[in-house]
Amino acid sequence: MTLGEKLKKIRQDNHLSQEDFSEQFHVTRQTVSNWENGKSFPDLETLVKISNIFNVSTDELLKEDEAVVQRIDSEKKKKNTLLIVLLVLIVGINFSGFFFYQELKKQTAVSFSMEDHKTIKIAKKKETEVATGYFSIPKKGNYELKVSGESDDGEVEVKIKNTKNDKVVYESKKSEWQENQLVLLEEASYQVQVNVKDTKVSPVSLSYQVKVANK
């Protein structure tokens, strides 16, 4: 006896029309007719529901119908293959996204630092250049700026300016100070100038630190 014949017998033994049977399993009457005529067959989930409702084992339903068993097994293998492909795609997309994110971070990363502690001779003038440095900003945004300076005479001046338009984006001069703030920087190259000013003695001992990094 085929699966279709067994399903028809179960329906008739329970005094159900094809319409009644179809409503229980949320399919059309034509679908039930196709099951019984062997034109199609229920999926595994529906077979389990039929088994539970009418108290008949799935083994008993599928017994002697090798064609249906093979088709169900084939469907399971297709679903498993599809699931594996889907998982591979998800992992691949996540990996690609992570790799892209890491590359983007590298391309937009900013890590500039210049610092020193030195003693220098001062000529008789109001300002003496101590150091000059350069860094680039790949993308407009807020960047973390850490600046400090100290001198035993006069003032240490730190000035940061946009080399494209000579606009000064940061400037500070004191004998001793330390600052940590966010500054909005355009996409451009910047020059850092460190000077010592208004000294009265020579040599002068001083220290400075300038750091710019992503927020």
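the 2nd protein, sequnce then structure:
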Amino acid sequence: MRRALLLKQLETCFSVILLFYPTVYRPGEACGAAEEERGTGTGSFVLCRACGHELAYETDIRFVPSRLALSGRNDTLLAGDRRVHVQLFENPHGLQFEVITFRKADVTKHWPADKRFSWFPGFAWTMATCPQCKTHLGWAFQPGDWPDTITHTKFEESDQTFLALITHRLLREDFASSLLMTPKSFMS
């Protein structure tokens, strides 16, 4: 009876850990496949704040200036000691978004791209969401003279494409790790 209760408590603890940090549990080959798929980036990951999905490396941040930004500032929001440029934009509905631009990120792009109301003149945009939890993370931008719908590979391989991701929907990996607590029963 006591042993069954202890096993049930351990199972609950592991379930809680897996719920709050889904990247901890990756059986053997899945771990290697995820690293190969992501490439050879360096630095800490930028995560989806809603679910913890690994979106990009900090080194994937690339500043793309826009004359349509309401304001811009340098900050250390996502890059630790490295300063990144944060731009403030307003959409036609009056909603404002602070964004950081990335060269690439693991997001789902929802084509067709729209050329109207672009914050980056000469570029068409499409929504970008988290592939795991479907949270709206920002927008993907491609040259305006491209077709409205393109392949994921063409987007990723081009030097002309970029993403503008909303700062408060992102989280640094090292900050997320600092929020995790080890249950007392696991401490020695």
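The CA atoms of residues 18 and 25 lie 7 Å apart. Residues 12-40 have pLDDT under 50 and may be disordered.
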